[in-house]
C-alpha cells in the first residue's frame, strides 16, 4: 500500500476493480480544509479516462510493473504485434491499449509496461516524437500564406497530419506522438 504522497505520472494503481495509469496529477492545498490530490486516470483495460480526487493521506493500491523495450512488427486489423528486443518473445496487443496506433511505423521501439503479478501487458509508451515520410500532400498555393497556414498531409503509416504549406511529398517530418501534431521538417 502507498499513500497519495507517492502519486506520480505513469504510476499504475488498482482503483474501482480495474487497473488505472495516472496520466496527470495536481496536489492542491486550499486555504481552508484539508489538502487533496486531483488526478486524471486512464483505464488500462478499456482506455477510458476519468477524473478522481483523493484526499491527502488516502491509501492507494499500487500495481508492480516492469518496463521492457519491444519492437513494433506489424498489425492485423485491431491486433498489433510486438517483439521483446532482449528475449525475442512476441506479444499481441489490441489497438485500444495504444495511445497513437496510427503513428506506429514498423521497426519502432516502444516501452511496454507489464504487470509482474499476471505477466499481462498494461500500457505502451511510444517515443516522444517519430519521424515519418509524407506520402501525399496537396501543393501549397502561392499567395496563400496567412500566418500559420496549414494543409492536410498523409504520412507513410496512413495517418493524416496538418503540416505547413512548404511541406511536399517525400519530405520527412517529425511528429509529436502525444498530440499527433507536426513539429518540424527533418533534413537528411
TrEMBL record:
Belongs to the elongation factor P family. Pathway: Protein biosynthesis; polypeptide chain elongation. SUPFAM superfamilies: Nucleic acid-binding proteins, Translation proteins SH3-like domain. NCBIfam families: efp, PRK00529.1. Involved in peptide bond synthesis. Stimulates efficient translation and peptide-bond synthesis on native or reconstituted 70S ribosomes in vitro. Probably functions indirectly by altering the affinity of the ribosome for aminoacyl-tRNA, thus increasing their reactivity as acceptors for peptidyl transferase. The lineage of its organism: Bacteria, Pseudomonadati, Bacteroidota, Flavobacteriia, Flavobacteriales. Keywords: Cytoplasm, Elongation factor, Protein biosynthesis. InterPro entries: Elong-fact-P_C, NA-bd_OB-fold, Rib_uL2_dom2, Transl_elong_fac_P/YeiP, Transl_elong_KOW-like, Transl_elong_P/YeiP_cen, Transl_elong_P/YeiP_CS, Transl_elongation_fac_P. Residues 67-122 form the Translation elongation factor P/YeiP central domain. GO terms for molecular function: translation elongation factor activity. This is Elongation factor P.
Amino acid at each position: 500500500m502507498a499513500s497519495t504522497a507517492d502519486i506520480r505520472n505513469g504510476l499504475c494503481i488498482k482503483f474501482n476493480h480495474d487497473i488505472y495509469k495516472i496520466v496527470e496529477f495536481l496536489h492542491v492545498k486550499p486555504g481552508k480544509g484539508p489538502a487533496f490530490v486531483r488526478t486524471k486516470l486512464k483505464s488500462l483495460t478499456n482506455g477510458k479516462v476519468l477524473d478522481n480526487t483523493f484526499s491527502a493521506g488516502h491509501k492507494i493500491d499500487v500495481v508492480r510493473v516492469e518496463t521492457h523495450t519491444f519492437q513494433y512488427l506489424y498489425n492485423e486489423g485491431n491486433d498489433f504485434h510486438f517483439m521483446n528486443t532482449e528475449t525475442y518473445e512476441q506479444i499481441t496487443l489490441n489497438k485500444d491499449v495504444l495511445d497513437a496506433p496510427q503513428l506506429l511505423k514498423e521497426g519502432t521501439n516502444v516501452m511496454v509496461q507489464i504487470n509482474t503479478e499476471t505477466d499481462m501487458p498494461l500500457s505502451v509508451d511510444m517515443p516522444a516524437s517519430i519521424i515519418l515520410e509524407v506520402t501525399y500532400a496537396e501543393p501549397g498555393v502561392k499567395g496563400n500564406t496567412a500566418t500559420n497556414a496549414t494543409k492536410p498531409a498523409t504520412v507513410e503509416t496512413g495517418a493524416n497530419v496538418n503540416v505547413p504549406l512548404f511541406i511536399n511529398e517525400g519530405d520527412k517530418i517529425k511528429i509529436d506522438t502525444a498530440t499527433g501534431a507536426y513539429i518540424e521538417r527533418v533534413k537528411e
